[in-house]
Design a protein that fits this description.
globular, 3-stranded antiparallel β-sheet, 647 residues, 4 domains, alpha+beta, Phosphorylase Kinase, domain 1, 21 helices
Length: 647
């Protein structure tokens, strides 16, 4: 600031030192400028600077000051602006006295300043949540570190100093803390928030996260099984230790599960960034020494690449073997179990049907239009079969491995065959009672402990995120298209997430650019359909429609009421002469979520579900892969549900 005239006016008076501090090269101004730069270097800045000189102040005989001296530039551009890359500089054609008194007349700089500030406010809606998200991501790593240290101390209090178990646990948990240190030192929060990060740093971030994900289960599985034995069989050394007294096995199980969940959150965010960032996706997952070689991220990366090559895939051909449906072993209204023979070998499979034409009675041939439509649907379905059969899904990805399909041309349908997960078929050819559809499980969950329902809801939401992280859309989410498996070891290693969850129903899933054939009839599939999908049969399917459907599934889990029950209640609530429309059906479900879920699952869960139904995930713009939507779903829905899992 031009201070010479002011200094001359106040020499020898108390304000002199203050005025001298306002000089551009003063120690005070230099320090303030440096401190502001360090604190605000990454912020967007709007700077205004004057273009006209201002009359300087002159001290009058009566001691007053009057602006009647020679004009000068009161604040130079170099002082008014910071010259940052993310700074917008706006020249104001006024002097220093008028720069903050702009008129609103047309052509005034007022409008440019107002628009610039408005853009900052609009951008703040994204910047401010990102800053909180940056803090949350850093907190995840810090909690993983502190929790791992706590588990490590407890293990040390329970195991003899020279035992192999303690040595293995010490090494594994210490390695986890090392990986957390790597993440803290790297630019991992910048990377997760979509900012440019060096490729070498991305590689280290991915390796650290995947090693975290693998070390804990590999390290603790054997010890947790041993620790869950009756007390008389457990180690007894150092039983009086503070950690042994403060933390029992149940507490340690919960701490370990917390680390599982937080590490899984980091993997979820990373998988979405891989979908968006070709550098992240292209990094090596194949090396024999790579910690990501057998990781969930490796499979997601392969599915992302596979999905991108969908247009080059040739329609699959029918499997050569024979399929027999064991109708007496198929679960009513649930899972269809079949037996597939090929070249003398046989195996049990889960069967799903995709109808491509309507069976006709003898003497009633199909029209040319019907034949063309059936051929088109069949070709699409064969292409889907090619995609699914080449996919390499494991339980961590929450999808079943597709073997291919059998063409049942006589009844106009394809039978998709899937591997049965685990050893879940008994010698008598029946599915184990631990295998249920979600629709069946919900009927059994109405009086189950709260953490069981939270765990199931969490797994269901994660299963959809994994589908979307691969670049897919499902298009047929409903509780009958989700398989739940209760692990055999639940009595040994009690965890709130008891369930293994698998999505099925991919007979209606295609590339996001394909159109859907919609039917207006009210049936089980339509109950889960977004209202926008009723009147636009040629509209491209987008991920928000899957999120709407998963919201209704989460509503079922939280209330214990299936959609058929909700539909009956909605029909009963209609006034005489009124019919249920897609919009009124959505409004009814939204009201059910808002009124029922706070009492059964808590307000945080209720808000997560209503966000899914409303589509209220604060995403105004997105890229073609809808990565921002996926990140918002992870943050606003999955993370909210995870809080209930980790209670």
């Amino acid at each position: 600031m031009l201070v010479t005239p002011w200094i001359q006016a106040v020499i020898g008076e108390p304000p002199e030192s203050l005025v001298r501090d306002l000089a551009p090269d003063s120690t005070t101004m230099t320090t303030l400028r440096e401190d502001f730069s360090n604190a605000s270097a990454k912020l967007e800045i709007v700077s205004c600077y004057e273009l006209r000189e201002t009359p300087t102040s002159v001290k009058q005989e009566d001691g007053s000051l009057k602006r009647c001296g020679p004009p000068g530039m009161m604040v130079r551009k170099a002082s008014a602006c910071l010259s940052w890359e993310n700074e917008e500089k706006i020249p104001i054609n006024e002097n220093h006295s008028m720069i903050a008194k702009l008129s609103r007349r047309e052509g005034s700089a007022y409008h440019k300043v107002k628009d610039a500030v408005l853009n900052l406010v609009i951008n703040a809606r994204k910047v401010v949540p990102n800053q909180f998200r940056r803090r949350d991501i850093s907190d995840y790593v810090r909690v993983i570190t502190s929790t791992s240290e706590t588990v490590r101390r407890y293990v040390q209090s329970r195991e003899p100093h020279d035992s192999e178990m303690r040595k293995s646990l010490d090494e594994g948990l210490a390695r986890m803390c090392d990986m957390c240190s790597v993440l803290i030192q790297e630019q991992f929060s910048d990377f997760f928030l979509g900012q440019d990060v060096p490729i070498a740093a991305i590689d280290r971030i991915k390796g650290a996260i995947q090693e975290l994900a693998q070390i804990l289960p590999a390290t603790l599985r054997g010890w947790l099984t041993q620790e869950a034995r009756p007390p008389s069989q457990s180690p007894t050394s150092n039983q009086s230790s503070d950690h042994a007294t403060l933390y029992g096995p149940d507490s340690v199980f919960k701490l370990a599960d917390r680390v599982f969940r937080l590490t899984e959150i980091l993997q979820q965010i990373l998988s979405l960034r891989m979908l968006e960032d070709p550098h992240a996706r292209a990094l090596n997952f194949q090396g024999s020494e790579s910690p990501t070689r057998d990781s969930g991220l490796a499979y997601i990366a392969r599915q992302q690449d596979l999905f991108r090559s969908t247009n080059q895939l040739q329609p699959a051909k029918s499997l050569p073997g024979t399929l027999q449906i064991a109708s007496e072993t198929s679960t009513p209204g649930g899972i269809t179990l079949g037996r597939y023979w090929d070249n003398g070998n046989d195996q049990y499979v889960i069967v799903e049907y995709r109808q491509y034409s309507t069976p006709r009675e003898s003497g009633h041939p199909m029209s040319e239009r019907e034949l063309n439509l059936a051929a088109s649907v069949k070709a699409q379905t064969q292409k889907l079969a090619a995609l699914l059969s080449q996919s390499d899904f494991r339980s961590g990805i929450h999808m079943l491995k597709c073997l291919g399909f059998v063409d049942e041309d006589s009844v106009g349908r394809l039978a998709f065959l899937y591997n049965v997960p685990g050893q879940l078929v008994g010698p008598d050819g029946t599915l184990h009672k631990r295998v249920l559809t979600l629709k069946q499980a919900i009927r059994k969950l109405s009086r189950s402990p709260l953490e069981i329902r939270f765990g199931l809801a969490y797994q269901v939401a994660v299963s959809l995120l994994n589908v979307h992280s691969c670049g897919w859309v499902h298009k047929n989410i409903c509780s009958r298209n989700i398989i739940c498996v209760l692990p055999k070891d639940r009595e040994i290693i009690p965890k709130p997430t008891h369930w293994d969850v698998y999505l099925k129903g991919f007979e209606s899933s295609r590339g996001a650019s394909d159109c859907s054939n919609l039917t207006p009839e009210w049936n089980e599939n339509v109950w889960y359909r977004h209202p926008d999908r009723f009147d636009s049969p040629a509209e491209r399917f987008i991920k928000k429609y899957d999120i709407y459907s998963i919201g209704l599934v989460l509503l079922e889990i939280g209330t214990g009421e299936l959609m058929e029950k909700q539909h009956e209640k909605a029909q009963s609530a209609l006034e005489s002469g009124h019919v249920l429309t897609p919009k009124s059906w959505k409004d009814f479900l939204l009201k059910s979520a808002e009124t029922m879920l706070p009492a059964t699952m808590g307000s945080s869960y209720a808000k997560a579900v209503t966000r899914c139904i409303k589509g209220d995930l604060h995403v105004k713009s997105d890229n073609p892969n809808e990565v921002a939507l996926g990140l918002a779903f992870q943050q606003l829905v999955i993370s909210s549900i995870a809080k209930g899992v980790m209670i």
